[in-house]
Amino acid sequence: MMETKTEGDSDNKVGGHVAASSHPESIEATETAELSTKRGLSARHAQFIALGGTIGTGLFVGSGSTLARGGPAFLVGSYVVMSALIYMVLTAVIEISTYLPLPGGTMNYYGSRYVSRSLGFMMGWLYFYSFAIFVPFELTASALVIEYWNPNVNNAVWITIMLVMVVGLNLLPVKFYGETEFWFAGLKVLTIVGLLILSIVLFFGGGPSHERLYFRYWKDPGATKELIVQGDAGRFVAALSTLLSSVLPFTFSPEMVVVTAGEVQSPRRNLPKIARNFFWRLIVFYIGGTIAISVICPSNAPALTSGSSGAAASPWVVGIKNAGIKGLDSVINAVVVTAAWSAGNSFLYLASRSLYSMACEGSAPRIFKRCTKQGVPIYAVIASSLFSLLAYMNVNSNAADVFNWLLNLVNTGGFISWVCCGIIYIRFRKACDVQNLPKSALVARSFLQPVGSYISLIMFGLLCLLNGFTVFFPSRWSVADFLSAYIGLPLFIVIYFVHRFLHRADSWAISSHEVDLKTGLAELEAEESLEEPKEGLRARFKRHWAAVLWEPCNSGNAEVTAILRSNYDLVQTQGYHIQSIDHGEIAGWKPHRMERYLEDALQHGPFDFVLVAMKNLPDVYSIPDIIGPAIAPQTSIVLVQNGIDIEPPLLEAFPNNILLSGVPLIGCELNGREMLHNDPDILQLAYWPNPKFTPENQTTACAAFARIYNNGGAKCNIQTDISWFRWRKLIWNASFNTVCAITNLDSGAIQDAGGLDTLIRPAMRDVVAVARAAGHIFSDEILDDMVAFTPKEARLKPSMQVDAVRQKPMEIEVILGNPIKTAKKLGVLVPTLEFLYSLLQTKQWSFLNLEK
Question: What is the pTM of this model?
């Protein structure tokens, strides 16, 4: 993490009865969030994205051709079978992704991690190409559907409008994509629910003619059809062909849920809910929808096979027209337009995240890993958007043939993906068993697994091979149809084996003992705590109105006493002027009480919490001596400071008080009364074990402070190992922070001068070596990640550099001194840290003497 400081004294985030302390000379610290994708999708967004992903043009229009191919019985039966198989895949991928829902954690990522790099590489390019080529396909579909109303306008006009909207939305933070899909999914749900109700009404004779339909079309023209050949063999061919044609509406829907796991809030809690709801959506919308279609629309209706675009080919519209209801065809057509456009929007999102995921795992250029401050993988979105231009090929008939060939490459994409998902799950479960991973660690286990994965793997493998089986009948043989059905299969097999050849030193599959089940778990805890209590509707309602009525100033239902020094007069008279990414603009905000000196604040005690966010300078002053007068028997001390091993002095000084340790991740600059909060406020918090208190009592205190913090509109995650987070933050602070202070160059200038390889990375390696020796797990990629979080153009001036310029004491002991002491105890050599420490000690000596 990165830290900078600007002019002004420290004001501290507080929240029970809380006192916030700051040192007279302390300076506000700024945390810059990681430049990676962000969890901007709420549970509401994720639910409706998954919901909308199961209702598309396939159900509204494509189901008509499937009905015409096999008849109502085979249509319903095919959707039942496909729904069951897809649910087996879904439960498998949900179990995998909820165990480790990391940003960039697509199924190709898990393939690389749990099976082999070659499998992940092949899957990554399969997903990227499939999703990217579906974008122009859906844009073209939207234009063709609009043609239903106005055939005189060139389709290029509608394609351009749709393309600009899709690309524009994907360049915005992910919450805008989530919000858009939320409303479009809601529209599709309302439409399909309305159509289901209408079908029930027509079933019982509620239409204009009052004629009861019942299951008449199952008798005439019949429940099943024959295809190519006569008799039972013809019915078998029709059944199999219907099953294969019913795949398209389901394609990549389980994978879509996995992709959102990296950007949805609280994925371990929300993804299992999505999986449970997905089951009922399959039953109600797909199985229920096909039953409704079979009731209102005959399988021999000419419109189903006429090749018409939009609502004209929809079995729903055919049934509605047959019932004598007018005007609904345009309504259905409008929904089909939004469904196609929404699909294009989703496919561009999925393509960009697939490319981002490959960049994260090293299967694509690292530039595609770069994100904006809002968490948008900007270069991945731009690269994926270029495929959208292929939609213009459909304006010309000759070029359209070329586009169709490009599209044919992914005809078997869904089958290949689902087979790979089954392989990944089987290997994942094998690794869990071999490494004795407790069952409780898998938060979304399903009774269907692992048997469900074996069934889906075998079934989808067979269906992949049978995808174009009708072409092998002599009367149906066509080279073009054969290539259309099967060209994608050998192509992606070749991609796999080429990568396998280039990395032939790799084993065919990672050994179950060597599968990495640990890396990233600690990062996951940084974003989510599974121990948060679940609230019912009544509890949420009560808490919401309590916050509104008691604390309109949004301070988390706590009475706050803040201790200010140099900006006391300014804040006392005018309050803070806050511009916050979390809370918007707030003018004149003041804590409940403000005092210039700690002695004056004692009249407002005793305090439930004393929050310490001052600079940690043990070589300058003693924090226990400063805060000691404010500590009462019931007070819990909350440390929100830099460095490692900062807790023992507090525990020794206050053995009869609970000690909470926090690592802040926040971007905030304070200058007088002007506060700029430019990155989301996230605090990692844990209790520091005190043998005089039970774990339950310490957990209760930790939860109480976290609740206050969260009620104030910020985010506090309760952790079990706060030391890991301190070491992770130290990797950045001990390198960029110290080198910038010594050289007086900002982070970008350091990289321009070549200091990245000579000073920054060596310092980072020293910190990682000590952390690993101390028992903390860090991957080899952590250095690259830290450097990637500090782009040259950011030109950051870290806190120690600002202190050095102002000739103020720096936090060299907790950032360098303590890690060096730990290294000596563990026998780890840290030459770069010792070199930097010696230089900064000289600066510190001059500052302290000048101050005196």
Answer: 0.61
